[in-house]
Amino acid sequence: MSKVYTLDKNNLSEEIFEKGSLKCFKCQSNEKLVKKTKMLSCPPVLVFQIQRIVETGKGFFKRTDPVEFSFDLKVVGREDEKRVEVDYKLYAAVYHSGDLEAGHYYSAVRRGSDWYICDNEHIWKCRDAKETSKSVGEIKTPIAALCGVPRHCVEIVDMEEGIIYDDCRDVTTLSRPLQVMVGTDERRVPFYLLTTDADMIDQDPDDEEPRLKMSCGHAITPYNLFGHMRNSLINKVKSSVTCLTSGCNQEWSMNEIIKKADMTTDESLFFEYKISLNAIFSHNNDTSECPHCGQFCQRQQNTQAVRCSICSPRKHEKQADFCWDCKAPWVPNHTCKNRDLEAIQKILNEAPLKTLDYSNIERVPSKRLCPNCRTLIEHERMCKQMKCPGCQTEFCFSCLTLCVGSRLQCSGYSKECSVAPVQNAFS
């Protein structure tokens, strides 16, 4: 879509009924009903809604093709029979990231020459347009062209974590090389699997979309099968994929799903690993992650104190023993702390390493806890001096030394210093 909108007679018209569904009262001929909108004056604030949800014969889906628009818009109107020209400046945009089933709303708001992105919890400054940083959505197009597939068949993933990255994610925050999962634009059904039974999701026996029978005997299209499998494993984080037919709930094997959804090798490898990962967290009470290195550990005989076999040989690790329940370092007469710290520790462990450009310091964890109030903070840009948004404490993001009178104590903001290791959320 090359332009967001043009105020001409075509775009300000909306077809209400298709031709043939309405008869003219005078001549009784079949006509279509069209609603036309006319601007009588130029309002102080102009709001456009871009229709991204469209309906096809297969149901509703969200368009994901990019929208390009100018920051300036000149509108010609009439007030008191006089021609009036009004120049509008783009002030804000509200957009949705995700699909019809899940996602998030964001707003971009301009303040002076700077843009800020807002969600439910955070506000952060948008990168300058001159910078080379791109989003996941932006790099999908050249990757798709290189792979010879449509853009919607390409996903940027993290195989080890079982993550499919959202289109708005900044590529510079991802580990390299990027992991790409290539799908298919056409999911075929072998003739011997075809059935005329209604799809368990659409419930339309007259639908011409090819359908196949699952092992439980209920029918589904390969596209709906893949979508149901993806939703179950990614959005709902389930450890199994089951039939949606009321009263059935039979579990399908991944081998069956891979074959009948006509999945590519990339898709098969990713989702087979993902369902295994989900099973580890949901079913196996004797397997969990080490809070220090992130590797999976197993415990024996339901003991609370666990020793990580990876961390133990490392001499610099002061404590490789941790509590199975709360993941805090194990000490005699240990009492469990807040379980939310486990999630915070996981974020700290998995935070990508970055270079603080202004200070020329490499391999710094991009997420830290404030040394004073323990607020979780992410470094986006500029130098190493950080001000906590919670308690207003200033500190060095690299070595974690506190500032005195807003002045760094380790070195100047543009000079190197030591890099403190990943913090322990439980200490």
UniProtKB/TrEMBL annotation:
One of the GO biological process terms: proteolysis
Catalysed reactions listed for this entry: Thiol-dependent hydrolysis of ester, thioester, amide, peptide and isopeptide bonds formed by the C-terminal Gly of ubiquitin (a 76-residue protein attached to proteins as an intracellular targeting signal)
MF terms in GO: cysteine-type deubiquitinase activity; transferase activity; zinc ion binding
UniProt enzyme class: hydrolase
Source superkingdom: Eukaryota
EC number from the UniProt entry: 3.4.19.12
Record-linked SUPFAM superfamilies: Cysteine proteinases (SSF54001), RING/U-box (SSF57850)
GO cellular component, one term: cytosol
InterPro entries: IBR_dom (IPR002867), Papain-like_cys_pep_sf (IPR038765), Peptidase_C19 (IPR050164), Peptidase_C19_UCH (IPR001394), TRIAD_supradom (IPR044066), USP (IPR028889)
Keywords associated with the record: Hydrolase, Metal-binding, Protease, Repeat, Thiol protease, Transferase, Ubl conjugation pathway, Zinc, Zinc-finger
PANTHER family: UBIQUITIN CARBOXYL-TERMINAL HYDROLASE, UBIQUITIN CARBOXYL-TERMINAL HYDROLASE 30
Protein family (similarity comment): Belongs to the peptidase C19 family.
Listed name of the protein: ubiquitinyl hydrolase 1
Native species: Magallana gigas (Pacific oyster)
Taxonomy of the source species: Eukaryota, Metazoa, Spiralia, Lophotrochozoa, Mollusca
